[in-house]
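Expect chain and fold; see below:
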Amino acid sequence: MWWPSEFAFHVTAYMGLLGYFVAKETRRVGAKLSQIFMCVLAGSVLHLGIALAFRQTYAGHLSLGLFGLALLEFFVIVQLMVQVVRHLKSK
C-alpha cells in the first residue's frame, strides 16, 4: 500500500491549518469572499515555497524546530494577508 511521505503529510496538514487561520483573520478585517479566496491561495503558495526551502525540517519527524518554523511562518503569512486586505479595502 502506498503512503505519502512525511514531507507531503506535514506540508498538506499545515497548509490546511494556514488556510483556516488566513480565512478567519481576513474575514475579521472585513474582506469579501473573493479577497479571502485570493489570500488563502497566496498564503498557500508562500507556505509551499517556504516548505520547499526548508525541506529537511519539514521532512523530519515532528520536532521543536518544525513547530517553531511553522508558528513563525503562520504569524508572518497571516499578518501579511491581513495587510493585503487592508490595502485592497483602502483603494
Summary: The chain has one domain: 6-90. The two ends are 52 Å apart (CA to CA). DSSP finds four helices and no strands in the chain. The mean pLDDT is 89.
